[in-house]
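2024-03-11 09:14:02 INFO worker-7 job=invfold-0412 stage=load source=structure_tokens
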């Protein structure tokens, strides 16, 4: 049996290898619906737990949303263990963030981030999906995201540690930028 990290790596690689039509099918797949043949192939190959089918449908759909719709370059990445989801929610997947050091604006505002943290577990998938659509427009496709963080938020809904880690990573990315902006504002 694969670990969650190994599973996310395998799902990411399989999704990056799909043609645009197959990815579009996955993006349209309803998490509480029947699923698509591509999803069921992934489920059979990777051994998704039957009692978590709805969550896995949501995870696969979110990952498909994060893949650029245009022709894929070989450099496009989806899963990267070193780029925590909370960090990407702050910087939008832009390693050069903030573009304006005087006014660092997180990709996902603190208000929207607080709403995500307060979202009931049953609605968390929809909230993350909306955020994924925003990230798909802003993130650098060659920079991956720790997809395991996304999976944990949907698979381990009663685990407050996943939400705590998300908040820790978001603010670890935001706080230094805020401090630098304050410091530069004082120096002027």
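2024-03-11 09:14:09 INFO worker-7 stage=emit residues=188
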């Amino acid at each position: 049996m694969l670990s969650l990290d190994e599973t996310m790596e395998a799902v990411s690689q399989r999704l990056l290898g799909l043609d645009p039509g197959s990815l579009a099918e996955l993006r349209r797949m309803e998490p509480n619906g029947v699923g698509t043949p591509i999803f069921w192939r992934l489920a059979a190959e990777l051994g998704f737990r039957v009692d978590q089918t709805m969550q896995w449908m949501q995870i696969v759909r979110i990952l498909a949303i994060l893949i650029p719709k245009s022709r894929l370059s070989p450099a496009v990445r989806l899963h990267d263990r070193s780029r925590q989801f909370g960090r990407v929610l702050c910087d939008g997947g832009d390693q050069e963030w903030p573009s304006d050091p005087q006014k660092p604006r997180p990709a996902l505002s603190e208000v929207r981030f607080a709403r995500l943290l307060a979202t009931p577990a049953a609605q968390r998938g929809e909230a993350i999906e909306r955020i994924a659509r925003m990230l798909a427009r802003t993130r650098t496709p060659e920079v991956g995201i720790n997809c395991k963080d996304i999976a944990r938020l949907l698979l381990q809904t009663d685990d407050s540690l996943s939400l705590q880690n998300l908040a820790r990573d978001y603010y670890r990315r935001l706080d230094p930028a805020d401090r630098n902006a304050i410091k530069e504002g004082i120096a002027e």
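2024-03-11 09:14:09 INFO worker-7 stage=report msg="The chain has one domain: 4-187."
2024-03-11 09:14:10 INFO worker-7 job finished
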